[in-house]
Amino acid sequence: MAKLLITGGAGFIGSHTCLVLLEAGHSLVVLDNFDNSSPESLRRVQELAGPAAADALKVIKGDVRSSSDLERALAGGCDAVVHFAGLKAVGESVAKPLLYWDVNVSGSRELLAAMRACGCRTIVFSSSATLYGLPEVVPICETAPIKPINPYGQTKAAVEQMLADIATSEAGWRIACLRYFNPVGAHPSGRLGEDPNGIPNNLFPFVSQVAVGRRSRLSVFGGDWPTPDGSGVRDYIHVMDLAEGHRAAVDVLLAEDPQLLTLNLGSGQGHSVLEVVAAFEAASGQAVPYEVVARRPGDAASSVADPSLAAQRLRWRTQRGLSEMCRDGWAWQSANPQGYAS
Ligand code: NAD
Ligand code: UFG
Are 17 and 243 in contact (CB under 8 A)? Predict the structure, then answer.
């Protein structure tokens, strides 16, 4: 079993992935500055993983831009890094581009330098479907043009390029760039989930907060898209499927020869905003009032993965559908109406 450094492991995707990696028998060091998360998520990961995993999770409060924090996190040796740490709000990235280039790009550069210094050359990177911009062909293959339309997407493209350059510069790198589509849902226990600060930017947490009564109604951004019901279509992926995709990527990288893998992680299934609303109402038994408003600038009509390369290379595919995403998202939201602060 491997020793792994998980940057950003206290966050939404990181916490679920930590649990899956602990259950697979790996030992983890999490490095997180808790800028967008709470240590409570990792306490609950520990609780769900049980006493057998008590010594297998070490938490360090620190920043990926700090070489001394990275040195501390890598001090016990490291077989592979899963790099979640970063900022992800599209609107904020437009307002604060230098912050996004600093955390996402300089942070990744600092991490790669620290990895080289300690001889670890295996990394799984959290990339995003956002780097496809407004896709011309759907479903989207990994060979589609990289055309990000906001600073957040630019930083993801830049880190992918940095990883490709380092793989070319010296032998031995094992790299997986995982381009997530729309991660949603929660651990089925309702103990872990997504806990955004302030007003959620994304559909799923907004719908959950309307269902639980924290917000009065959803604004549906556009009813005139060229989609079957006129609302936007996305490829939602259950966060537990995504976590299992990371476990598979770590296993493949450590077992195979050095390589650079670039993979879409999605279900291949598109769902419209109105379908998500109906599925969430059915799962929660709560009404989700909504009104259709103007389109949101920068949105695509439809974004759906072609997930066949990941299925082939990782022997992984999604197992959970929209109803499970809503069921588990509701288990989390109803038990933790104020997130980890509940
Ligand atoms: P999140 O904000 O919940 O998790 C990110 C974690 O990184 C947080 O715990 C945060 O405190 C930590 N962090 C931020 N800056 C840091 C720094 N400088 N040093 C150390 N830790 C830091 O986000 P998430 O949804 O779990 O996303 C994880 C990764 O996946 C991000 O890189 C994000 O860009 C990427 N991603 C997310 C989505 C999505 O829709 N959630 C989609 C595609 C890609
Ligand atoms: N939507 C609404 N109302 C809302 C929020 C969203 O109608 O309040 C609609 C959007 O217009 C879109 C769909 O719901 O049609 C999904 O929107 P999200 O904001 O949840 O997700 P996006 O696909 O726009 O983007 C998200 C992240 C990106 C990431 C991308 C793919 O914000 O950073 O998923 O992973 F790149």
Answer: yes
Give residue 86 CA to ligand 1 midpoint distance, Å: 4
Which of the ligands is closest to the CA of residue 108?
A: 1
Residue in the block written with tokens 């879409």: 264
Q: What is the DSSP string of 93-122?
A: HHH-HHHHIIIIIIHHHHHHHHHHHHT--E
Ligand at minimal distance from the CA of 140 is 2
CA–CA separation, 141 and 303 (whole Å): 11
- Please provide the average confidence, as pLDDT, over all residues in the chain: 97
240 falls in which pLDDT band (50, 70, 90)?
very high
What residues are labeled active site?
152
155-181 as b/e, with b when 16 or more CB fall inside 10 Å? bbbbbbeebeebbeeeeebbbbbbbbb
Q: What is the pTM of this model?
A: 0.98
Backbone angles phi, psi at 151, to 5 degrees: -60, -35
CA–CA separation, 74 and 37 (whole Å) = 22
Q: Whose CA is nearest to atom 39 of ligand 1?
A: 183
Pairwise CA distance, residues 139 & 156, whole Å: 20
Cα separation, 91 vs 70, in Å, equals 29
Q: What would the DSSP string read from start to end of 202-259? A: SHHHHHHHHHTTSSS-EEEE-S-SSSTTSS-EE-EEEHHHHHHHHHHHHHHHHHS-SE
Provide residues with CB under 6 Å of ligand 1: 7-8, 10-14, 31-37, 63-65, 84-88, 103, 107, 126, 128, 180, 183
Please state whether the peptide bond connecting residue 258 to the residue before it is cis, i.e. omega within 30 degrees of 0.
no
- The band of 189, judged by pLDDT with boundaries at 50, 70 and 90, is very high
Q: Which residue has the tokens 């920043």?
A: 63
Q: Which CATH class is domain 3-185+236-268+303-319?
A: alpha beta
Find the 203 Cα to ligand 2 centroid distance in Å: 6
Q: Write the pLDDT tens digit of every residue in 249-294.
A: 999 999 999 999 999 999 999 999 999 999 999 999 999 999 999 9
Distances (CA, A) of 270 to 131, 301, 307, 313: 18, 11, 12, 22
